[in-house]
Amino acid sequence: MVHIPSAYTYNFWAKSPTEVVELTCLMPNGVVIPLETNRNITLAEIKEDLWDEASKYPLHGTLKDAPSYVFSCINSNAEAEELRDETRRLCDIKPFCSVLKVIEREGVKSDRSLDSQIGLLIGKGLHEFTGLRNSEVNDFRWKMRVLGDEVAMARQKKSWMEKVRYQFPTRLAPTATIPKNIECRLKDGNIVLVTKFETTETAFTFQISHTTTPYQLLVSILNKRANTLMSKGYPNDFTLKVCGQEEYLIGDYPLIQFSYIQDCLAKDIIPTLVTLNRDSVSVDQENTAENVEADTLQRTRPSFSTLTLRKKGKHISAWKIEEPFVFTVNAISRLNCDAAHRTVEIGLQAGLFHGGKSLCESQKTKETVVNSDGSCEWEETLRFDIKVRDIPRMARLCFVLYEISKTAKGLKSRRLVKDTKQEFFINPLCWANTTIYDFKSQLKTGAMTLYTWTYAEDMQNDDLLHPLGTVVSNPHIDRAAALMLTFPNYGKEKSVLYPTPEKMVEYARKLRESSTERSIQEEPDQESDVGKLQQLEQLRLLADRDPLHELHEQERKIMWALRHHCLLEIPTLLAKLLHCVEWNDHREVAEATALVQQWPKLPVEKALELLDYAYADQNVRSFAVRCLMDVSDEDLSLYLLQLAQALKHENYLSCDLTEFLLRRALNNRRIGHFLFWHLRSEMQVGAVSVRFGLILEAYCRGSQQHMRSLFKQMECLGKLKCASEQIKQRKDRKAALQGFQEFIQEPHCQEALSNVLNPLDPSFRWKRIKIEKCRVMDSKMRPLWLVFENADPLGDDIYLILKHGDDLRQDMLTLQMLRIMDKLWKREGLDLRMNPYGCISTENRVGMIEVVLNAETIANIQKEKGTFSATAAFRRGSLLAWLKDHNHTEAALNRAIEEFTLSCAGYCVATYVLGIADRHSDNIMVKKTGQLFHVDFGHILGHFKEKFGFRRERVPFVLTNDFVHVINKGQTKKGQAVEFQRFQSHCEQAFLVLRQHGGLILSLFAMMISTGLPELSSEKDLNYLRDTLVLEMSESEAQKHFRSKFDEALCNSWKTSLNWASHNMSKNNKTT
């Protein structure tokens, strides 16, 4: 047997390899040199050792000097990668089989190394995209490359200030008006702030007018410095930076308009700014050579005819084809159903859908028995009750393959088929969807193979078909059943094209003209005008109803008849008007297209609704994106999570929403940062890996400087994930911590963990990890409590928690909804002291959470203040006693109780509306300042944990005796105290504000339906929100309803205490 070195095994780097690695170096002169090295060694050191070693081998004289060469290897993505950065360490490069090849530097195209870097960063080699040999993918890549280069070139021409604004975006309020919640915190309209200098210890305190601009403040600072330190300076040479963050106050705005200043004032913190020289701001210098010249792109552009196919005579309009839609189901192969051991009878159902709604009756094949190899042939033609001309452009053809059996297979979606003698069950096995038209608007023809997706256990469709599922074929073709279909060619030798929007508008105009001629004979009389006014009034009321409000047939008819009046007088009715369109009638589709083209822009809140799953039409979605064009970067950040998820509802790669998000990301690095992570964290999901991968590739090409910073974050997260995996293998927490500290102290980790932007908030940069302050936490998944030193010497340490093993996407959604609610409340002058801390998912079941310092869980407070027992939760005084310990003066205590009262009201309402379940004393925390907040949002929308067959939470709010005791400042009157009545009125006001914006809240959740969150899979989940917000009631009825829920919570506060007591008891019996 030949000895195979361990370094040759395919998983050598995955297992923790030995300190010494046996490298195989392939020299350019054909000689192979084995080299033993340390795994922590850098490439530069390897090169030096290698050239020493080479002198002992033949043909040494043919080698040039070492700097003329670079190393290349096969990386973990199975791609050849040139290793240009020689400070990288061997253990980070992980060359396959530990083989390094030495190649010449000259004439190497820079693009190859960029492609390889992008591939590693996005988790998918770019050769995979090329390997798809898919014209839609190639077309999209070309378009996005042109877009990225165009933005990058424009960026090079920007001024210093514009570049700073791109790289370190300044967060601004939309206007300079002072928000109501901040007005009372100004002293006679003045702001108190502290300014420091980067080099000296000196700090100045100023009390200045809120209208002062950064430039005026700099003048004051430099004058004061000239007087005290006798050093002069010119304001134009300096800039103001937020202390501890990479955020700058630049531009001619009053200080009060900067979000940082507003946030500080709202939290009663004194804003701290650092005055530093402009030269100290590390603005990236984009390298012009990095962006390929535009003319080379023009040359690689696909020929125009393949993209448009608008050549006369080569195509026929789909609207001329009056034949019914048919296709042939040929066969299925590789069906995983155990057919070798039993008789399996299967059938196929197919349906046409548009925006989740059926266009005509679905059709089924005859049932057949599967062959033992999992294949089965039909050769059956399915005929649909719809003409080709009436199938809308964005229609989907949906399939489900099901088994007919005499027993139910535990799937929620089983259906009963009644037979005369026996009962049968339909058990769905797998599904697939595809579009009727391709990305160039051509009707698909000929043979096609679809690779199916397995039917998930948690699918909650009422229908067997899954129209909201992806139109992408399963990329894991080796383990998916393949469905073979054949589509007829209706145009004979011509291709069938769907008409352009212009043609549709023209068609609608002709239709209108012919109908006007017909109606001229029937002259309208005066009475109909009065009736019309009444009908318009009715429609005005409908405009305020929520997105899920079901329209009656009569209402739909009136609305459609008065559509032109709606356009002029009630434009916010558009979403409801689109529900009146019969999408399976090409004439109505033409009319709807013409209407949307003329429709006035809608406010952002209303436009978002048009991007959820129910609006499939591309003209409608494009209109929605046009309405979003003017949205501020601040507001865009608020809705970015949903907009990224809404990409999953798009039928094709190229769409206005993708282009809009990419442009905004390439013009604001903060938005780019979060868009990158929202997409990158789902790259393992087969249905979106190509779409998201291509968008990430386009982003990296258009922002190569940012890519380097993201690469650093990725490396850092990789090390922390490794550390986390090692910790989980150790049962003992002490040993785990010791192992973690040893691993983190290795040079390759120290390097990866230093000088990194915080993925949670890229305005913070850390310098290094403070190992002595880090710890392993005691929950099941063993999260890591991490502390980093701020890169700004004047800034505070950065604390965060790394979670590995928990899906943080639902937490992200809940916290983002809390942020939006907080914004809505503040707009109405209601500051409920919410604390939506940062949370980000970076890859599958890995993510980070911001640590809220100086806070304790209710359970710990009760343990500390009561001699701990099961009944600690009943003791009313423990929470108030704890607050007294941390707030010694009466004024401080009153302030803490006020904070507690406001935040308690905010979270009571938010948890009630969002149906945040599983609330107990371990996931509610209180800061020493009195601010209460909730953590850990594992269950939302009323998905309550079942225990002993009944719901553990019977309370609409979490209101315990202890909470009421604090709100009442320890007085015993439960509901009568003035303080408590104020608390109740805060809750009512907060609830009514959310009701006013019920449409926005519903739309944001609707955009997330069917995007992968198990608790948000169908419209049923949205109905939970409708019910809690009682959107069908009038305001006074809603207030009455809310009061009854509030009283119920108050009466049941002892039950909540009991619940928590049992939670404390069971937790106390466990050893952590």
Automatic annotation (TrEMBL):
Q: Which UniProt keywords apply?
A: ATP-binding, Kinase, Nucleotide-binding, Transferase
Gene3D superfamilies referenced in this protein's UniProt entry, alphabetically: 3.10.20.770, C2 domain, Phosphatidylinositol 3-/4-kinase, catalytic domain, Phosphatidylinositol 3-kinase Catalytic Subunit, Chain A, domain 4, Phosphatidylinositol 3-kinase, accessory domain (PIK)
Q: Describe the location of the PI3K-ABD domain by residue ranges.
A: 17-106
**What is the top-level taxon of the source organism?**
Eukaryota
Catalytic activity field:
a 1,2-diacyl-sn-glycero-3-phospho-(1D-myo-inositol) + ATP = a 1,2-diacyl-sn-glycero-3-phospho-(1D-myo-inositol-3-phosphate) + ADP + H(+)
User: Its GO CC terms?
Assistant: cytoplasm; phosphatidylinositol 3-kinase complex; plasma membrane
Q: Name one GO molecular function term.
A: 1-phosphatidylinositol-4-phosphate 3-kinase activity
Give yes or no: UniProt keyword Nucleotide-binding. yes
Question: Which ranges carry the PI3K/PI4K catalytic domain?
Answer: 770-1054
Q: InterPro entries from the entry?
A: ARM-type_fold, C2_domain_sf, Kinase-like_dom_sf, PI3/4_kinase, PI3/4_kinase_cat_dom, PI3/4_kinase_cat_sf, PI3/4_kinase_CS, PI3K-type_C2_dom
Q: Which GO BP terms apply?
A: bleb assembly; cell migration; phosphatidylinositol 3-kinase/protein kinase B signal transduction; phosphatidylinositol-mediated signaling; regulation of chemotaxis
For this protein, the Enzyme Commission number is 2.7.1.137
Which PROSITE patterns does the UniProt record give?
C2_PI3K, PI3_4_KINASE_1, PI3_4_KINASE_2, PI3_4_KINASE_3, PI3K_ABD, PI3K_RBD, PIK_HELICAL
Residues in PI3K-RBD domain copies: 188-277
Domain called PIK helical: residue spans = 525-702
Annotated C2 PI3K-type domain ranges read 321-488
* Family indicated by similarity: Belongs to the PI3/PI4-kinase family.
User: What name goes with this protein?
Assistant: phosphatidylinositol 3-kinase
Q: Which organism is it from?
A: Eufriesea mexicana
